[in-house]
Specification:
There is one protein chain. The chain has 227 residues and is of the alpha+beta class. Helix content is 58%, strand content 17%. The protein has 7 helices and 6 strands; from the N terminus they run E-E-H-E-E-E-H-H-H-H-E-H-H. The protein has a 6-stranded mixed sheet, with helices on both faces. Helix 2 packs antiparallel against helix 4. The longest helix has 39 residues. It is elongated, with a radius of gyration of 33 Å. The protein starts with a strand and ends with a helix.
Length: 227
């Protein structure tokens, strides 16, 4: 069965709505754990644009499934035994319902987590249709999609987090190296050297220019006397 549904904004990982059935389960330790993992997954998706738009993320005996469409991410948690094709049909139904709303309101003006309450009610209504996989409607959906290939990437949540951590570590190391080189050239020591030796260097260059000019003038004079 579908145990958790969150709809969030990909741009910054802000959760916009959740199924209201879970609002009364905030003190449930198991629920809080999976909700935190779903929010963490949403953040990971917002930070990693290379992720596949359809993925199944494995965690214990459960699976997170997410669909990214038009800068919105739809995440659902289910038992591992729940039919994946049916689950993605559920996410697509949510996406179609959300298309009826003003995209500008969702993406630009929403600033508080889970403040899109109107859509929370819609999530609850659609979720009820997918609770029992044995209903005639759901069996028909499964039969209709039986021959269709599901373009979904499967990965374990820990692998996803570790890959992101390695990427962040690499980015930090690269930034540190650039800052180290920059700090050397901007150091106080080099500034002191520049202040001390720049006038001397200028004087030496002036002397060399004058000396070379005098040599040229002397050569011209010698040539003229010989003529």
């Amino acid at each position: 069965m579908v145990k958790l549904t969150i709809v969030g904004r990909v741009e910054d990982g802000l959760p916009l709505a959740q199924d209201q059935i879970y609002v009364n389960q905030q003190d449930n330790a198991s629920f809080l754990f999976y909700k935190q993992q779903a929010e963490l997954l949403l953040k990971q998706i917002s930070k990693d644009p290379l992720l596949h738009p359809r993925m199944t993320i494995l965690l214990d005996h459960h699976s997170f499934h997410f669909l990214v469409e038009k800068k919105i991410c739809y995440i659902a948690l289910s038992d591992s035994s729940y039919p994946r094709k049916l689950l993605f049909q559920y996410l697509q139904d949510l996406q179609k319902e959300l298309d009826h709303f003003d995209e500008t309101t969702l993406i630009q003006t929403t600033s508080k987590p889970y403040s899109f309450v109107r859509f929370s009610k819609i999530i609850g209504r659609i979720r009820k249709q997918y609770m029992d996989t044995r209903t005639q409607a759901n069996l028909s959906k499964l039969n209709a999609s039986r021959k269709q290939e599901l373009d979904v990437v499967t990965e374990h949540l820990n692998d996803l987090i570790q890959r992101r951590q390695r990427l962040e570590t690499s980015e930090i190391s690269s930034l540190d190296r650039r800052m180290s080189v920059s700090s050397i050239w901007c150091s106080r020591y080099l500034q002191d050297i520049a202040l001390r030796w720049t006038p001397v260097t200028i004087i030496i260059l002036v002397i060399l220019v004058i000396f070379k000019s005098s040599l040229i003038m002397t050569d011209d004079y010698l040539i003229s006397t010989m003529i």
